[in-house]
Specification:
The protein contains 8 helices and 10 strands. The chain is an alpha+beta fold. It starts with a strand and ends in a 7-residue tail after the last helix.
């Protein structure tokens, strides 16, 4: 049996009453005087089947709360309900007729692929699954080996089932003036007329993904190779060895700092600063808010170990900037000796500084 979708009723839920348009099997012709709502009926059907927007007449805005539509998809009844004032809200689908919907829980679907937080997925996928239409990805640029792929949606097919009267006979119907969209239109027609091979499309999609991944890895490899050339290392393993040497040296420094801190009677290095200026400067006037001339600002005491560690860190950073990790190790090892000897002079004033 061929898949089908048949519209049974269009219901506009009003503030005082519901407005219902019923349809029969076969061809239905909507006729009437001008401005009596013929086009509005078609617009509501299109909107309830996933269109992104709808134009509302003033009479509708003042009297209608939401729109609903009863459909049969392959002999199964469904009621589609959608907010007509907020197109981005989830579309509710009940597995029943409109009068029986209160006895069922609805599925909530996103109206487009940009909204990804819907509990039950996308409305387009729901329709494609119920109609037994395969969900495929179409090549954006069929002539290119590495091409992006775009999901086929129900709206791509609905476009040629619901044709606006203003587009009939115009070039915009098939997007003949827009090369990008016209290419997609050709792929959709292949799908509609069963000329689109799903297996080949799937293989092409995998090939395109693998080629894109290959190009990304090649670019990453070039960046790593350029980095190694600039730093003077031949391979990643040699860089790892240098980093290991650096870690060993840092451990030695930390042990030396621990030994120094253990021999210091006071954990803080305090500099005594006079609170009064020298007699020669006591009568000198200074601007308001400024300390008297000759009196330095008070410095908070700092742990000696922290001072040494800060100096060592500066040395390592400077050495790395000058010539990479090897240069940093050399500068660190040479300057560390000086810094530790300098720190040792606080403990033993008779020791010499190298």
């Amino acid at each position: 049996m061929k898949s089908y979708l048949r519209i049974e009723k269009l219901i506009l839920a009003g503030l005082r009453k519901n407005y219902i348009v019923s349809f029969e099997n076969g061809l239905n012709i909507i006729h009437g005087d001008s401005d009596t709502g013929k086009s509005s009926i078609l617009e509501f059907i299109n909107y309830l089947l996933g269109s992104s927007r709808i134009e509302l007449a003033d009479e509708v805005i003042s009297s209608v709360k939401f729109a609903a539509m009863e459909v049969f998809i392959n002999d199964s009844p469904f009621t589609i309900i959608r907010d007509i004032y907020k197109p981005s809200e989830f579309i509710e689908v009940y597995p029943s007729l409109y009068e029986e919907k209160d006895s069922f829980l609805p599925g909530k679907y996103a109206p487009n692929f940009k909204i990804t937080n819907a509990p039950d997925g996308f409305f387009s996928d729901f329709l494609m699954d119920k109609l037994n239409f395969p969900k495929l990805k179409l090549k954006v640029s069929p002539t290119q080996e590495i091409s992006k792929f775009q999901r086929l949606s129900f709206r791509n097919i609905m476009k040629f089932a619901y044709v606006n009267q203003d587009d009939m006979g115009s070039k915009s119907l098939l997007n003949l003036t827009e090369w990008g969209r016209y290419t997609q239109t050709k792929e959709v027609f292949k799908y509609i007329y069963n000329l689109f091979d799903a297996d080949i499309a799937d293989i092409e999609s995998q090939i395109s993904e693998k080629k894109s991944e290959h190009a990304r890895l090649v670019k990453k490899y070039d960046n790593v190779a350029e980095f190694l050339r600039e730093t003077g290392y031949e391979s990643i393993s040699s860089l790892d060895d240098a980093i290991t040497e650096c870690d060993i040296l840092i451990e030695d420094i930390e042990e030396s700092l621990s030994e120094i801190n253990a021999t210091i009677p006071c954990p803080l290095s305090v500099v005594n600063i006079p609170t009064q200026p020298p007699p020669s400067l006591q009568n000198r006037k200074t601007p308001a808010g400024m300390p008297a001339a000759g009196v330095p600002k008070r410095v908070m005491p700092v742990p000696l170990g922290r001072l040494v560690a800060r100096e060592i860190s500066k040395s390592l950073v400077w050495g790395r900037k000058q010539g990479g990790v090897r240069r940093g190790l050399f500068v660190l090892s040479s300057l560390t000796t000086h810094r530790l000897a300098y720190a040792n002079s606080f403990v033993n004033p008779k020791s010499k500084i190298f």
